Amino acid sequence: MSSGSTNIANNGGGSQGGPCGACKFLRRKCLRGCIFAPYFDSDQGTAHFAAVHKVFGASNASKLLLRIPPHKRLDAVVTLCYEALARVRDPVYGCVAHIFTLQQQVVNLQAELAYVQARLATVQCLPTPPLPPQPQSLHSSSNIVAPPSDLVPISNLMMHLDPLQTQQCAGQQMTSLFNPLDQELIDGEDLQALAREFVCRYLPGVRFRPPGPHQNF
To answer: Where does the LOB domain lie (predicted)?
Structure first.
Protein backbone atom coordinates (compact mmCIF):
# COMPACT_ATOMS: atom_id res chain seq x y z
CA MET A 1 0.00 0.00 0.00
CA SER A 2 1.35 3.45 -0.95
CA SER A 3 1.82 6.29 1.51
CA GLY A 4 -1.13 8.15 -0.05
CA SER A 5 -3.43 5.22 0.47
CA THR A 6 -2.21 4.89 4.05
CA ASN A 7 -2.99 8.54 4.72
CA ILE A 8 -6.46 8.18 3.22
CA ALA A 9 -7.16 5.12 5.43
CA ASN A 10 -5.89 6.86 8.52
CA ASN A 11 -7.82 10.02 7.74
CA GLY A 12 -11.09 8.21 7.26
CA GLY A 13 -10.98 6.81 3.74
CA GLY A 14 -11.11 3.12 2.90
CA SER A 15 -8.19 0.98 1.80
CA GLN A 16 -6.64 1.99 -1.53
CA GLY A 17 -8.71 5.20 -1.50
CA GLY A 18 -12.08 3.39 -1.46
CA PRO A 19 -14.75 3.69 1.19
CA CYS A 20 -14.51 1.75 4.44
CA GLY A 21 -16.73 -1.24 5.08
CA ALA A 22 -19.24 0.80 7.07
CA CYS A 23 -19.61 3.51 4.45
CA LYS A 24 -19.73 0.89 1.71
CA PHE A 25 -22.60 -0.85 3.46
CA LEU A 26 -24.39 2.45 4.07
CA ARG A 27 -23.71 3.48 0.44
CA ARG A 28 -22.30 6.78 1.37
CA LYS A 29 -19.05 8.61 0.75
CA CYS A 30 -16.31 7.83 3.29
CA LEU A 31 -15.27 11.25 4.56
CA ARG A 32 -12.02 12.20 6.19
CA GLY A 33 -12.12 11.38 9.91
CA CYS A 34 -14.71 8.59 9.56
CA ILE A 35 -15.05 6.88 12.95
CA PHE A 36 -15.50 3.43 11.37
CA ALA A 37 -12.67 3.56 8.82
CA PRO A 38 -9.81 2.35 11.09
CA TYR A 39 -11.77 -0.74 12.15
CA PHE A 40 -13.93 -1.82 9.16
CA ASP A 41 -12.09 -2.45 5.91
CA SER A 42 -13.84 -2.61 2.57
CA ASP A 43 -13.61 -6.44 2.33
CA GLN A 44 -14.61 -8.24 5.51
CA GLY A 45 -15.64 -5.11 7.36
CA THR A 46 -18.83 -4.83 5.33
CA ALA A 47 -20.30 -8.11 6.71
CA HIS A 48 -19.29 -7.26 10.26
CA PHE A 49 -20.74 -3.77 10.08
CA ALA A 50 -23.95 -5.17 8.61
CA ALA A 51 -24.43 -7.23 11.79
CA VAL A 52 -23.58 -4.23 13.99
CA HIS A 53 -25.98 -2.02 12.08
CA LYS A 54 -28.78 -4.60 12.32
CA VAL A 55 -28.41 -5.07 16.07
CA PHE A 56 -27.21 -1.71 17.41
CA GLY A 57 -27.63 0.71 14.54
CA ALA A 58 -24.94 2.80 12.84
CA SER A 59 -25.80 5.96 14.77
CA ASN A 60 -25.63 4.25 18.17
CA ALA A 61 -22.35 2.53 17.27
CA SER A 62 -20.75 5.82 16.16
CA LYS A 63 -21.89 7.61 19.32
CA LEU A 64 -20.49 4.80 21.45
CA LEU A 65 -17.10 4.92 19.75
CA LEU A 66 -16.89 8.71 20.02
CA ARG A 67 -17.32 8.50 23.80
CA ILE A 68 -14.50 5.96 24.19
CA PRO A 69 -10.81 6.96 24.25
CA PRO A 70 -9.01 6.14 20.99
CA HIS A 71 -6.76 3.49 22.58
CA LYS A 72 -9.82 1.52 23.75
CA ARG A 73 -11.93 1.78 20.61
CA LEU A 74 -10.52 -1.37 19.04
CA ASP A 75 -11.68 -3.49 22.00
CA ALA A 76 -15.09 -1.85 21.80
CA VAL A 77 -15.41 -2.62 18.08
CA VAL A 78 -14.41 -6.25 18.64
CA THR A 79 -17.04 -6.55 21.37
CA LEU A 80 -19.73 -4.95 19.22
CA CYS A 81 -18.98 -7.26 16.30
CA TYR A 82 -18.96 -10.36 18.52
CA GLU A 83 -22.27 -9.55 20.16
CA ALA A 84 -23.86 -8.55 16.86
CA LEU A 85 -22.77 -11.73 15.05
CA ALA A 86 -23.93 -13.88 17.99
CA ARG A 87 -27.32 -12.16 17.98
CA VAL A 88 -27.67 -12.74 14.24
CA ARG A 89 -26.95 -16.47 14.67
CA ASP A 90 -29.17 -16.82 17.75
CA PRO A 91 -31.81 -14.06 17.87
CA VAL A 92 -33.21 -15.33 21.20
CA TYR A 93 -30.11 -15.71 23.38
CA GLY A 94 -27.37 -14.13 21.32
CA CYS A 95 -24.01 -14.15 23.06
CA VAL A 96 -25.68 -15.39 26.26
CA ALA A 97 -25.92 -18.83 24.62
CA HIS A 98 -22.13 -18.85 24.29
CA ILE A 99 -21.86 -17.85 27.95
CA PHE A 100 -24.18 -20.70 28.99
CA THR A 101 -22.15 -23.15 26.91
CA LEU A 102 -18.89 -22.00 28.46
CA GLN A 103 -20.38 -22.13 31.96
CA GLN A 104 -21.58 -25.69 31.35
CA GLN A 105 -18.11 -26.64 30.17
CA VAL A 106 -16.67 -25.13 33.36
CA VAL A 107 -19.12 -27.14 35.48
CA ASN A 108 -18.27 -30.36 33.64
CA LEU A 109 -14.55 -29.75 33.97
CA GLN A 110 -14.90 -28.97 37.68
CA ALA A 111 -16.86 -32.19 38.22
CA GLU A 112 -14.24 -34.17 36.33
CA LEU A 113 -11.47 -32.51 38.33
CA ALA A 114 -13.25 -33.31 41.61
CA TYR A 115 -13.64 -36.95 40.53
CA VAL A 116 -9.97 -37.24 39.62
CA GLN A 117 -8.92 -35.64 42.90
CA ALA A 118 -11.16 -38.03 44.85
CA ARG A 119 -9.67 -41.01 43.03
CA LEU A 120 -6.19 -39.71 43.69
CA ALA A 121 -6.94 -39.25 47.39
CA THR A 122 -8.32 -42.80 47.55
CA VAL A 123 -5.21 -44.23 45.93
CA GLN A 124 -2.95 -42.27 48.27
CA CYS A 125 -4.85 -43.53 51.33
CA LEU A 126 -4.50 -47.19 50.38
CA PRO A 127 -1.96 -49.06 52.56
CA THR A 128 1.19 -50.05 50.87
CA PRO A 129 1.54 -53.81 50.35
CA PRO A 130 3.94 -55.44 52.81
CA LEU A 131 7.32 -56.39 51.53
CA PRO A 132 8.11 -60.10 51.24
CA PRO A 133 10.04 -61.41 54.25
CA GLN A 134 13.75 -61.37 53.73
CA PRO A 135 15.69 -64.53 54.67
CA GLN A 136 17.67 -63.94 57.82
CA SER A 137 21.32 -64.81 57.61
CA LEU A 138 23.03 -66.84 60.29
CA HIS A 139 25.41 -64.00 61.07
CA SER A 140 22.76 -61.29 61.50
CA SER A 141 20.13 -63.32 63.38
CA SER A 142 20.07 -62.53 67.09
CA ASN A 143 17.70 -65.39 67.97
CA ILE A 144 20.16 -68.16 67.13
CA VAL A 145 22.27 -69.17 70.09
CA ALA A 146 25.78 -70.21 69.29
CA PRO A 147 26.79 -73.58 70.70
CA PRO A 148 29.30 -73.63 73.55
CA SER A 149 32.88 -73.70 72.50
CA ASP A 150 33.66 -76.74 74.64
CA LEU A 151 31.30 -79.01 72.69
CA VAL A 152 32.83 -81.17 70.02
CA PRO A 153 30.96 -81.42 66.71
CA ILE A 154 29.24 -84.70 66.05
CA SER A 155 31.11 -85.21 62.80
CA ASN A 156 34.46 -84.92 64.58
CA LEU A 157 33.26 -87.22 67.34
CA MET A 158 32.24 -89.88 64.84
CA MET A 159 35.76 -89.96 63.45
CA HIS A 160 37.19 -90.97 66.86
CA LEU A 161 34.53 -93.48 67.86
CA ASP A 162 34.74 -97.10 66.99
CA PRO A 163 31.63 -98.29 65.18
CA LEU A 164 31.35 -101.28 67.48
CA GLN A 165 31.51 -99.13 70.59
CA THR A 166 28.96 -96.80 69.13
CA GLN A 167 26.69 -99.73 68.45
CA GLN A 168 27.02 -100.95 72.03
CA CYS A 169 26.32 -97.49 73.42
CA ALA A 170 23.29 -97.20 71.21
CA GLY A 171 22.07 -100.56 72.44
CA GLN A 172 22.47 -99.46 76.03
CA GLN A 173 20.50 -96.29 75.34
CA MET A 174 17.73 -98.28 73.73
CA THR A 175 17.51 -100.72 76.63
CA SER A 176 17.35 -97.84 79.10
CA LEU A 177 14.22 -96.57 77.36
CA PHE A 178 12.24 -99.62 78.40
CA ASN A 179 11.04 -100.50 81.87
CA PRO A 180 12.48 -103.57 83.71
CA LEU A 181 9.59 -105.80 82.65
CA ASP A 182 10.18 -105.06 78.98
CA GLN A 183 13.91 -105.65 79.35
CA GLU A 184 13.24 -109.17 80.58
CA LEU A 185 11.18 -109.90 77.48
CA ILE A 186 13.78 -108.65 75.03
CA ASP A 187 16.53 -111.11 74.23
CA GLY A 188 19.89 -110.45 72.63
CA GLU A 189 18.73 -110.61 69.04
CA ASP A 190 15.88 -108.16 69.56
CA LEU A 191 18.21 -105.79 71.36
CA GLN A 192 20.68 -106.00 68.49
CA ALA A 193 17.92 -105.24 65.95
CA LEU A 194 16.73 -102.27 67.98
CA ALA A 195 20.27 -101.00 68.32
CA ARG A 196 20.85 -101.24 64.58
CA GLU A 197 17.59 -99.42 63.88
CA PHE A 198 18.50 -96.68 66.34
CA VAL A 199 21.99 -96.25 64.91
CA CYS A 200 20.76 -96.24 61.32
CA ARG A 201 18.15 -93.62 62.13
CA TYR A 202 20.09 -91.24 64.35
CA LEU A 203 23.72 -92.04 63.43
CA PRO A 204 23.72 -92.59 59.69
CA GLY A 205 27.51 -92.28 59.44
CA VAL A 206 28.14 -95.37 61.60
CA ARG A 207 28.57 -98.75 59.94
CA PHE A 208 28.41 -102.08 61.73
CA ARG A 209 31.37 -104.43 61.79
CA PRO A 210 30.75 -108.08 61.22
CA PRO A 211 30.53 -109.85 64.59
CA GLY A 212 33.73 -111.59 65.70
CA PRO A 213 34.00 -114.90 67.49
CA HIS A 214 33.96 -113.20 70.92
CA GLN A 215 31.42 -110.46 70.16
CA ASN A 216 27.69 -110.46 70.71
CA PHE A 217 26.97 -108.29 67.64
So the answer is: 18-120
